[in-house]
Specification:
The complex is a heterodimer of chains A (345) and B (257). Chain A is an alpha/beta fold and 345 residues long. Chain A contains 14 helices and twelve strands. Chain A has helices at 2-10, 31-40, 52-59, 78-86, 101-108, 130-136, 148-160, 174-177, 226-232, 246-251, 286-295, 299-311, 316-322, 325-336; strands at 16-20, 65-68, 92-96, 112-117, 142-145, 164-167, 182-185, 192-197, 203-211, 217-218, 235-243, 265-268. In chain A, α4 links the parallel β2 (65-68) and β3 (92-96). In chain A, α5 (101-108) crosses α6 (130-136). Chain B has 257 residues and is an alpha/beta fold. Chain B has helices spanning 7-16, 31-42, 82-90, 132-138, 171-174, 213-218, 238-248, and strands spanning 24-26, 48-50, 55-56, 78-79, 96-99, 103-104, 110-111, 114-117, 122-125, 141-145, 182-187, 191-195, 202-207, 225-232. In chain B, the strands form four sheets. In chain B, strands 2-1-5-10-11-12-13-14 form an eight-stranded mixed β-sheet, sandwiched between helices. Chain B has a two-stranded antiparallel ribbon with strand order 3-4. In chain B, strands 6-7 form a two-stranded antiparallel ribbon. In chain B, β11 and β12 (191-195) form a beta hairpin. In chain B, α2 (31-42) crosses α7. The longest helix of chain B is centred in the N-terminal third of the chain and has 12 residues, at 31-42. The chains are: A alpha/beta (345), B alpha/beta (257).
């Protein structure tokens, strides 16, 4: 009864906007704009397997808004980041949603000029990327501040097909002031809520464990926001450790993380998350990640490093071969499975 | 006087004592994670750790490098999503969080976004909120573990990334943050601080062995209040140090800093 009385008391009041953040909203949160796109997208369950080169050529364009799957340097589509640099994409928008090594690579290629910042520039316990810091301190990049949860919630709103979801973070902070959120008074309770506008990225790249050629995908371990990212993005490129049969997908549909009709391209890229971690497959190459951070301190040496490790490489396998090849991959598998603790040499 | 432990070991041991058995904790990598692991191995085997990348109540075999890596999810009861973890905090299920930052002010507000310049062209760009604003908004008790340094303990944060008690008094709840949440304690190499209940200003609770109130104040960029009674912090015990060094951080990733 008490709740009913409160609702009645408030029913004639329009939703009250208390405050607006001054950050720029880089993408359109209108669900009808997204629906128009999704309406036209093919639902056919057809073979979408292709090379990563072809997928990036076809689905990632200059000026568009890009989002990547994975968390930090875990299950990150590193191979795709390298290919984006090789193809010289520019002026993109980017979702810095727990972006670490991927952010470091994209900064090296100056791929984006606007970023939604949840977590950027750092590599968690490993320290800050000198290259990413330099790029972000040039003043050339427009930044709108968010939090990790804000970006999760924005992708959730996109996946739900609504213009925003309300949350209780951001309140009272400069993070809000430099965001594109709004604080409103809740029409039910009168409480202050921060609105997280839907994020519909133009294109997402998500690295996964397994997929069939149609794009029915299996992810193991933490998901971060990739379930919602796949649903909110207009185009989705999947890179997978291995292709599996559609029969295997249908044998155990409980394991499917997201279905084929969301996916535009499927690229089989074993070790596609190297030098990051891929849960249950291989651990991160900490030595090589440290080498990145160290060499970035000297811009000239870093340019040569990028030339050798990205621009002169035909594909991800060439990069891996330059950095220890199969022997290194075996070491990283050993570390991932803690087999060194059981005496594997 | 020679001490048989370093500053980092002291901070971790003292902070670990706060985490009682059966409670829940949202935490990042580094020293806070070491404190959580130590607490689990000492007095709080049923302390449930949650990492923002999605893992719930893992059994950490060693210190994770990333909160999303395989160690952070090792033998978890569930690996879920970031939304699921953050919303568990937002619903009021998470008791503690440990946060840090480049700057902390007298109300426990934290800056991890930028230093110097302006927002468009900062002198030093830092990672931003990550999950800090979320944890600091939602978890019941926010704690900070950091080195006592006047450049870090500043009169006013250049950028409030994560809410503490905001402008003090009742300002945190007036801003709409959930009732009952807020900064709880700050652990440094020199002292343990809490927040005076009315003004919400930081105050000295206890002084670590070998330091004085003057040392703490000299290494703080604002005037600290003092609790009615200031004790000496109990130093790390032999058991705490042994487990910390041998089981929690044998490679000295954190305690070697």
């Amino acid at each position: 009864m008490k709740i009913q009385a409160m609702i009645e008391e408030k029913e004639n009041t329009a939703m009250n906007i208390i405050k607006k953040g001054k950050g720029e909203l880089f993408t359109d949160p209108d669900p009808d704009y997204a629906r128009t796109f999704f309406q036209k997208k093919s639902r056919k369950m057809v073979n979408k397997s292709m090379t990563l080169t072809k997928a990036i050529e076809t689905f990632v364009h200059d000026g568009e808004y890009l989002a990547l799957g994975g968390f930090g340097a875990n299950r990150t589509p590193v191979a795709a980041c390298h290919e984006i640099l090789r193809q010289g994409r520019k002026n993109m928008g980017f979702a810095g949603h727990t972006a670490t090594h991927d952010f470091e690579i994209l900064c090296a290629g100056e791929v984006f000029d606007r970023v939604d910042a949840g977590y950027i520039v750092g590599l968690e316990a490993r320290g800050l990327s000198p290259c990413a810091r330099r790029y972000m301190q040039t003043g050339k990049v427009k930044v709108t501040e968010w939090t990790n949860y804000s970006l999760s919630a924005r992708l959730r709103a996109g996946a739900m097909g609504v213009p925003f979801v309300p949350t209780r973070n951001l309140l009272g902070t400069d993070t809000f002031e430099y965001s594109a959120s709004m604080i409103i008074e809740c029409p039910y309770t009168g409480k202050k809520l921060a609105l997280q506008p839907a994020l519909y990225p133009d294109v997402a790249v998500i690295h996964v464990h397994e997929s069939d050629v149609y794009g029915n995908v299996r992810v193991r371990g933490i998901l971060k926001s990739d379930n919602d990212l796949a649903r909110a993005a207009k185009r989705v490129i999947v890179t997978c450790e291995r292709l599996i049969t559609n029969e295997e997908i249908r044998r155990n549909p409980t394991e499917t993380t997201f279905p084929y009709f969301l996916v535009d391209a499927v690229c089989e890229v074993p070790y596609g998350g190297y030098p990051g971690t891929m849960a249950y497959e291989y651990f991160s190459d900490e030595e090589h990640l440290r080498e990145w951070l160290k060499v970035e301190e000297d811009p000239v040496a870093f340019k040569e490093f990028l030339q050798r490790n990205i621009y002169d490489c035909k594909d991800h396998h060439e990069y891996i071969n330059k950095n220890g090849g199969m022997e290194k991959m075996l070491q990283l598998r050993t570390i991932e499975h803690l087999l060194h603790k059981e005496g594997r040499r | 006087m020679t001490k048989s432990y370093n500053a980092m070991e002291l901070m971790i041991c003292v902070a670990a004592r706060e985490l009682e058995d059966g409670s829940t904790l949202a935490v990042g990598t580094g020293a806070p994670c070491a404190a959580a692991m130590l607490a689990q191995k000492l007095n709080s085997p049923n302390l449930a750790i949650m990492f923002e990348a999605g893992s719930i109540n893992p059994q950490l075999p060693e210190m994770p490098i990333s909160v999303g890596d395989s160690r952070a999810g090792h033998k978890a009861v569930m690996v879920s999503t970031m939304g699921a973890i953050m919303e568990t905090c937002q619903r009021g299920y998470v008791d503690y969080t440990f946060l840090g930052g480049a700057q902390i002010d007298m109300y426990g507000n934290l800056n991890s976004t930028l230093i110097g310049g302006n927002h468009q062209k900062p002198k030093v760009r830092l990672p931003g909120s990550g999950g800090a604003n979320d944890f600091g908004s939602f978890c019941w008790k926010m704690m900070v573990l950091t080195v006592q340094d006047a450049r870090r303990f500043v009169e006013k944060c250049e950028f409030i990334t994560t809410p503490g008690w905001l402008q003090g008094g009742n300002s945190r709840y007036e801003a709409g943050l959930p009732e009952g949440t807020g900064p709880y304690k700050v652990f440094t190499n020199m002292a343990v601080m809490d927040f005076e209940p009315e003004s919400k200003r930081m105050r000295i609770m206890s002084i670590n062995p070998g330091y004085s109130i003057k040392d703490v104040q000299d290494n703080c960029g604002f005037e600290l209040l003092q609790a009615p009674q200031i004790n000496e912090t109990a130093p790390p015990t032999e058991t705490e140090l042994k487990i910390l060094r041998e089981e929690v951080d044998p490679h000295r990733y954190v305690i070697g800093r």
